Amino acid sequence: MGWAGVFERILGDDLSIEIRAFDGSRAGTAGADVCVEVRSPLALSHLAAAPGELGLARAYVSGALEVHGDMYTALAAFPTVTLNDIPPELRRELAFKLAGYRFWWPVRVPEVEHRSSRGWRHSKRRDSQSISYHYDVSNRFYEYVLGPSMAYTCAVYPEQDATLEQAQFTKHDLVARKLDLKKGQRLLDVGCGWGGMVMHAAEHYGVRALGVTLSRQQAQWAQKAIAERGLADLAEVRHMDYRDVRESGFDAVSSIGLTEHIGVKQLPHYFSFLQDKLVAGGRMLNHCITRPHGHQKAKPGKFIGRYVFPDGELEPVGTLVSAMNDHGFEVRHEENLREHYALTLRDWCRNLERNWKAAVAEAGLARARVWRLYMAACRLGFERNNVQLHQVLGVKLDGVDARMPLRPAF
User: Fold this and answer.
1) What is the average pLDDT value for the chain, to the nearest integer?
2) Structural domain boundaries, residue 77
3) What are phi and psi of 228, to 5 degrees?
4) The whole model's pTM is what?
């Protein structure tokens, strides 16, 4: 049997994609729109050395495995991959073939894979290292992927055919309306990214907004954008840990895409700290990716943990609501936007493909391949309800007064 046949037996029968291998063998569905090319025995070596998604990811990132056609379509055709389910005779066959090519152990790990950060998990030092690994790739690379809005969080699509920029504007405006922002108020945006929410609040609501991020490159880009848009009298972005913010008396706090980096053990301090920053009657909007239920581990899969979000953790929305409720907030509204995140990722994938050559030139082929793989996989995850995106609105009570209308306008 050729290498294509071995790969097909590992992935499963009745694949809707074509498989081609370096030895000329073919398997799967001939003439399919998507073709997976096994370019070297190293592809199988990676899968043997790291069973499952990590091995496949290493094979693809290193170039030993190629996907011709749409990555999302290819991933949708793959079943869950694990060597534990491979019959013993196939494992022996794989080992024999690899031994013949002298490609079994060890297998070189792609250089872009994250090595363990130093320090205690979710300490300030380690969080800074983890954030820098993902977000300090290149501002220009992110411009190619995210588009003009430079918003790296779930957008909100007012209609199915809305553009990404319209959807990101709608997301920022939805957050502003949930927080009931008004001219002259003060907003703290933690994990502010490239400053999208900060600038939206300042420009469209006349709010004095402070954003903080652990990414130096994000802060530099945001500070420049704020100056160019003439918002320096209202908006500010600092390169700092949210835990180091000294100011208080804010009317509102927004956290859009930060909680995934906090860690479940840090949630009590996180919500208590942000509650303490608010005036009585102030509101907090927490927007983050969550698990669909509490039976899954908080830590992500090995590919996401090694190549995308080191030390990231996802909790079910019930854990977040309980933590907010137990640490100073009355929860007043919650909604799941997972379908919107699938659409957002669809549009980011399109941007990356449209700007592929420039993105590779800017960040390198291996890094670009990581982004192509992870964004397509995440799109599939939101569509299949493997992950969700929740917005939770809480209020710091003024005595017993929530200062909320009988029915919310948003």
Assistant:
1) 91
2) 3-101
3) -65, -30
4) 0.93
